[in-house]
Amino acid sequence: MKDWNKSFFIEIFLHGLIMGTINKLPGISGGLYAIIIGFYDHFMMSLKKIGLRNLLKNKSPKIFLSDINAFFLMTISLGMIVSYFTTSKILDYFLHNFQLQVWGCFFGLILGSVFFLIRKIDNIDITKSLIFLMSLTLGLVISFVDPMIENRNLIFIFFCGYISICGITIPGLSGSFLLIILGNYKLVLIDSVNNFYNLISNYLIGTNFTVSEVLLHILITFFIGSVIGLISLSRFLSFISQKYPRHLNFMIIGFVIGTLPIVWPWNQVKKFENDLLMIENLNLIDLYTSLIILIVLFLMIFIEKYAKNKKIRTNR
């Protein structure tokens, strides 16, 4: 990595800002962005070094912090945390006023991620085919049983935080998409974050927003689950993605395709139709939503091609 200076700090912070924003969008993973920019390996290596064994080995907190690139991790984490508060208000507004179009955008992002994963396929054998069929079946079962509803149980919230971190460590798997499947996307990434934003706003500038203690507990529990998941799963998931990348790829493709009906935009609108203002010219809205799906899909294809070209240039 480069020597630390003000401009490099800003650069890493901005990458964290973008990475955090991406993690909130179902269909894109922060790990994919890290690969495109070129710091994924460095990021994962730093995470894998975090642990009591490494701390005792170095015998000095200063050496340990240097070994895990603590300033790099803290800077990128700071950017991700800031992005969660800046994007949650925006997402909340659009989900309330343009729900169909937002879910159309999410659907396009997820389709694009499937395209990205399919492009990585080089050969197919019986084992990979079985993995694909099993994960596809699991995805379809999840899609067509009664959808999971919002669950505020703190143990389940911890699990949501623990499992959603896969979006950072496994490129192509979206943690936000997993939260949609678990039924807690809006609760943990929008409502609880906005609630904390209101708390900070009340404290700093004297506003009088309503603050829910329950949502604060949910956010703290989710955050703890995410941190523990990031540290404990990074070594295991990194091993799997390096040792069996093709098998993991087939598993993700099957699972994502199988669960696509969950994020089908018109299903989501039907699910929340009591909260919507009905618009008379629905056909025009349908057209806009379809165009959004196509635009986002082509954008994802462009990003995938850009990442591939950048990797080729880097290897020269």
Tell me the structural class: mainly alpha
Helix content: over 70%
Radius of gyration over alpha carbons? 20 Å
Biggest sheet overview: none
Count of helical stretches: 16
SSE string, helix = H, strand = E?
A: HHHHHHHHHHHHHHHH
Overall geometry comes to: globular
As an assembly, this protein is single chain
**Got a strand count?**
0
What are the low-pLDDT stretches, counting only 5+ consecutive residues below 50?
A: 271-282, 312-316
Q: In what range is the share of β-strand residues?
A: under 5%
Mean pLDDT metric? 78
How does this model look, in words?
The protein has 316 residues and is mainly alpha-helical. The chain has 16 helices and no strands. The protein is globular and about 50 Å long.
Keywords:
single chain; 316 residues; mainly alpha; 78% helix; 0% strand; disordered C terminus
Layout of secondary structure:
Blueprint lengths: L5 H18 L6 H8 L2 H9 L3 H7 L2 H7 L2 H28 L1 H20 L7 H19 L9 H11 L1 H4 L5 H8 L2 H21 L7 H31 L1 H14 L6 H7 L10 H34 L1
What's this, in brief?
This protein is an all-alpha fold and 316 residues long.
